[in-house]
Design goal:
Layout lengths: L2 E7 L5 H9 L16 E6 L3 H10 L3 E3 L2 E6 L18 H5 L3 E7 L15 H32 L5 H15 L11 H6 L11 E6 L14 H10 L3 E5 L1 H8 L3 H10 L6 H13 L1 E7 L3 E8 L4 H8 L1 H5 L1 E8 H7 L2 H6 L4 E3 L9 E7 L3
Parallel strand pairs: 1-4, 1-5, 3-9, 5-6, 6-7
Antiparallel strand pairs: 2-4, 8-9, 10-11, 10-12
């Protein structure tokens, strides 16, 4: 699995429609609040033209792309942290995600009522964010009550205590934990708490269909963009309805339809790219006669980490790695020609893996 994202937002904001845009189908969508009762979970395979080329050159019988897991929970409403609505029951389902997609609505539709009777995308974002802040504040205060006693008795880390105090201060001011002035060590100390507002976030502006080809021109987009910047997050505009319709069409038909309405790149594809940027991830490849496969790895990690991602035995018995950049391999057309061109290198365990590397691990089996 590459990474995992959770979808949040007010009821009727388009969350489940966005979910369907990723997975093709599966989430119930209707014109009333709280359609999603149980969390929707889907795995989305991520096509990669580099994987296709690597598989062809390697003569691989199969190819396996990397993937993301998408979790859609019930819509959050004002007071969710205190038990209002249904979404608060499922916040635990997104605590385990790597990033959050926060859907806000900028479209009007008489048959799809807004829970607060008006359309204000930035205000909607603030309503849901406050619920996430209050939910995190409750978690932090509970942990602080326990850790304070443990620190006094010498049984716990002062680093964690400092991090919790700074997190509580930010949350008490209505700010997300991602904006708290935590050191790298302090962030690591509270990482296991999976605080919702500490996760990277993309605000997804669900624009009217007529703005699908130019979402940045849609009403409310600019205000959400400004809001996202202040919240230490990114923004992406798309029409969830159009994206869902595109996901149901054959690839060629979807391309024609998208072109006709002025969409040069699928909104869901842009969201995936933003997710990789937010989480600072790269893709590397392995390939043999049986399978060519794409893997996700945190940028800056070494080939020993990549070996462990593939199989722990590879890391434990690591000897060396044979590395060929996929761009060079595609240009050469074969491994033999890539070696002759000097594109293939033998690397030790300290080598930092680059995006697009094709990696062959030599190791002693356990």
């Amino acid at each position: 699995m590459g990474w995992k994202c959770g979808i949040v937002g007010l009821p009727n904001s388009g969350k489940s429609t966005l979910f369907n845009s990723f997975v093709g189908s599966g989430a119930q969508v209707a014109e009333y609040p709280f359609t999603t009762i149980d969390p929707n979970i889907g795995v989305v395979l991520l096509p990669d033209s580099r994987l296709d080329a690597v598989a062809e050159i390697s003569g691989s019988a199969t190819k396996t792309p990397t993937a993301i897991e998408v979790v859609d929970i019930a819509g959050l409403v004002k007071g969710a942290h205190a038990g209002e609505g249904l979404g608060n029951r499922f916040l635990s389902h997104i605590r385990g995600t790597d990033a959050i997609l926060h859907v806000v609505r900028s479209f009007t539709a008489p048959r799809v009522p807004h829970t607060m009777g008006r359309i204000d995308a930035a205000d909607d974002a603030a309503v849901v964010d406050l619920e996430l802040v209050l939910a995190d504040l409750e978690v932090v205060e509970r942990r602080l009550a326990r850790i304070s006693k443990a620190v006094k008795s010498g049984d716990s880390s002062r680093q964690e205590l400092s991090a919790l105090e700074k997190a509580r201060e930010a949350l008490g001011q209505g700010k997300p934990v991602r904006l708290a002035s935590l050191s790298d060590e302090e962030r690591l100390a509270v990482q296991g708490m999976a605080l919702l507002t500490g996760k990277p976030c993309v605000y997804v502006v669900n624009v009217p269909e007529e703005f699908a080809g130019a979402p940045e021109r849609a009403p409310g987009y600019a205000t959400v963009e400004k809001y996202a910047s202040a919240a230490g997050a990114m923004v992406c505009g798309l029409s969830c309805k159009i994206e869902s319709e595109l996901s149901e069409l054959p690839l060629e038909e979807a391309g024609v339809f998208a072109s006709e309405i002025g969409i040069s790149e699928r909104g869901t594809d842009r969201l995936v790219r933003l997710g990789y940027r937010l989480l600072d991830l790269i893709t590397f490849f392995t390939a043999n006669d049986n399978e060519a496969r794409a893997w996700t790895l945190e940028r800056g990690l070494c080939v020993l980490d990549a070996a462990a991602r593939v199989h722990t035995d590879m890391a434990q018995g690591f000897i060396r790695a044979i590395v060929t950049p996929s761009a060079d391999l595609m240009k050469a057309g074969s491994y033999a020609k890539a070696r002759l061109a000097g594109a293939t290198r033998i690397e030790g365990k300290e080598y930092v893996v680059k995006d697009g590397d094709v990696v062959l691990i030599r190791f002693n089996p356990a």
